[in-house]
Design goal:
The complex is a heterodimer of chains A (278) and B (295).
Chain A lengths: L31 H23 L11 H14 L1 H33 L1 H16 L5 H8 L4 H25 L3 H9 L4 H38 L5 H11 L2 H33 L1
Helix pairs in contact in A: 2-10, 3-4, 3-6, 3-8, 3-9, 6-8, 7-8, 8-9, 8-10, 9-10
Chain B lengths: L17 H5 L21 E10 L2 E11 L4 E5 L6 H9 L6 E6 L2 E2 L7 E4 L11 H6 L8 H14 L15 H13 L5 E5 L7 H18 L2 E6 L2 H7 L2 E6 L12 E7 L11 H13 L8
Parallel strand pairs in B: 3-8, 3-9, 6-7, 7-8
Antiparallel strand pairs in B: 1-2, 1-4, 4-5, 9-10
Helix pairs in contact in B: 4-5
The chains are: A mainly alpha (278), B alpha/beta (295).
Chain lengths: 278, 295
């Protein structure tokens, strides 16, 4: 060697980093993602307003103007009905989601970790999963009756399967080499679970939870459309019967907003968790 | 070209702790190195060890004693059962026949007296390097003692400045050093290395070999090193165990066994180009069925 290697840290290391540090960075957008994300909804709103105000394409019953929908919302809000509908729906979703996701986590972990439990229970769970979840409705109505419980149970069923499937398959596919390394360094049982297996599945668990939450909203509307006296699904059905298209559209917008809000909140928790675990 | 460890600095650590590592004096290579206080070196006794997977016999009749503090390289063509033997000694695989004793008593499942360095670093991607190394600590240690030991080990492998980073933020060589530090954290009596440098580029591999010599000089632990690299075996080991079919008897039973067991002369670090080693290299290559093209 005649040349001395420059000692500056700019030299390429002999063994370059296996992966580039950090994630692929996206170009910073002006005003951040929030502003860009608002562009399409604002355009749609403008189009809606133009179509209803400028043309006679739709009758007000077919498509009421945005400001009509807004004033319908104000009217319902002032009577207190709107808040009632929203809180009832939100409460059902959260209860059902908590129950379904909790059960999905528990059963998914059990079957994902224990080969015996997997062999014993997975065919059964798989068969239940194959039943389209709405098929349970008549049975639930017969067994539990048209009350709060049957709706929460239906939502729980909807939330359960995505969470179960995500946790189960993630645990089945935890890097066997990492698990072996954990065992080789004296970890087993609960300590191995907490040190290697659970942290390894955190990202998949969160995607399962978010899917489960979306399913929970889906099943809420299904449950409320079928039989209820309050809630956003009830508002949809009642408005259709009364020809109140403005309220119907209002309910849809509110479902979109509430669904997006809960998903965003879960997303914030997810980001925090991924910072620690991934 | 002679490259004693003290003149080698790994590029990617030159700014960190390499100076501290390479300034460690290299001890002589008496087969039984004296271990530092706190470190132990245990002997390994194999008697008639074999391993079959179904009808397929991978290993048979492996009997040998590894002295405390000895570095034994296990060489063989791929698939000949090198790793299988190592895993049996570490209690990672319990299906072997015969008897394996460490310090006179049978190997337990995931035996605590051993520690394994795998071919892949196998670091937990969500933990910092520091926390990954702490994973190897024995549970009996207090928090303060554990912290002290991890600091000491990170210093030893030259990763002190990278302690807070995640595995994906460091190079493959550094990850392998972190893995080595993790294996040393329990102060194993027997260190089992399964092609630990096999996935590294040639230059980094040479540097890692010198690091391993430093570590061995400091800890004195018994080392079983699986490798497919003849030069690596000659550079690091007191003895080289060549696994393979019995060359003299082609009708011998299926499965690899001890084909040769060679003493490697000279004290470490060895001249990579010495004539003595060249002769051994030729012998090992022919044992592996490779033509070394000697004229």
């Amino acid at each position: 060697m005649t040349e001395t290697l420059p000692a500056a840290p700019t030299t390429q290391p002999a063994d370059a980093p296996a992966r580039t540090p950090g994630r692929r960075r996206r170009r910073k957008l002006p005003g951040g993602g929030l502003l860009i994300g608002a562009v399409v909804p604002v355009l749609l709103l403008g189009l809606w307003w133009l179509v209803t105000e400028g043309t006679d394409t739709f009758s007000p019953v077919q498509l009421p103007a945005p400001q009509t929908v807004f004033s319908a919302g104000v009217g319902l809000f002032e009577s207190g009905d709107l808040i009632d509908h929203m809180t009832v729906s939100l409460q059902r979703v959260l209860l059902g989601f908590a129950a379904g996701a909790g059960l999905g986590l528990a059963l998914g972990s059990l079957l994902g970790l224990s080969s015996i439990a997997d062999a014993l229970l997975h065919p059964t769970v798989g068969a239940f999963r194959a039943v389209p979840s709405l098929a349970w409705v008549p049975l639930l109505l017969l067994w539990v009756g048209i009350d709060e419980d049957s709706k929460v149970i239906l939502i729980a069923i909807g939330a359960f399967f995505p969470v179960f499937t995500a946790v189960h398959s993630a645990l089945r596919h935890v890097d066997a080499q990492l698990v072996e390394a954990g065992r080789a360094f004296g970890f087993h049982g609960v300590r191995l679970l907490g040190t290697v297996q659970l942290p390894a599945v955190v990202p998949s668990v969160f995607s399962g939870l978010r899917l489960g939450l979306a399913q929970a909203w889906l099943f809420l509307v299904a449950a409320e459309l079928l039989a209820s006296s309050e809630g956003l699904g009830f508002l949809l059905d009642e408005s259709r019967n009364n020809g109140r298209t403005d309220r119907l559209l209002l309910a849809i917008v509110l479902l979109a907003l509430l669904g997006k809000l809960t998903d965003t909140l879960l997303g914030i928790v997810e980001r925090k968790a991924l910072k620690t675990w991934a | 070209m002679i490259l004693p460890a003290s003149t080698l600095t790994e590029d990617d650590v030159s700014a960190t702790g390499a100076a501290a590592v390479s300034s460690v004096p290299i001890s002589g290579s008496s087969p039984v190195a004296r271990s530092r206080p706190g470190y132990t070196s245990l002997d390994v006794q194999l008697s008639g060890v074999g391993r079959s997977f179904g009808d397929h016999t991978v290993l048979r009749d492996v009997s040998l004693r590894v002295a405390p503090g000895e570095v034994l390289a296990i060489l063989g063509s791929s698939g000949c059962g090198k790793s299988t033997l190592l895993r049996a000694v570490g209690g990672l695989d319990t299906g072997s026949t015969g008897e394996i004793l460490i310090d006179g008593s049978a190997v337990q499942r995931y035996d605590e007296r051993t520690a394994v360095g795998f071919q892949e670093p196998r670091l937990l991607p969500w933990r910092s390097i520091y926390k990954n190394v702490s994973l190897g600590l024995p549970r009996s240690l207090s928090k303060a003692e554990g912290r002290e030991r991890v600091d000491e080990l990170l210093e030893l492998v030259g990763l002190k400045d990278r302690a807070a980073l995640r595995p994906r933020e460091i190079s493959g060589g550094m990850a392998q050093r972190a893995s080595l530090a993790r294996a040393l954290a329990r102060r194993p009596g027997v260190l089992l290395l399964d092609e630990p440098f096999g996935a590294l580029d040639a230059l980094t591999r040479l540097k890692m070999q010198d690091l391993l010599l430093d570590v061995h000089a400091q800890t004195g632990t018994t080392v079983l090193l699986v490798t497919h690299d003849v030069d690596e075996a000659l550079q690091l080991a007191d003895r080289v165990l060549l696994l393979g079919k019995n060359a003299e008897d082609p009708t011998a039973a299926e499965g690899a066994t001890i084909a040769r067991l060679l003493d490697v002369p000279g004290s470490r670090p060895r001249d990579r180009a010495s004539a003595e080693l060249a002769a051994l290299r030729g012998e090992l290559f022919s044992g592996l069925g490779v033509d070394s093209h000697t004229r």
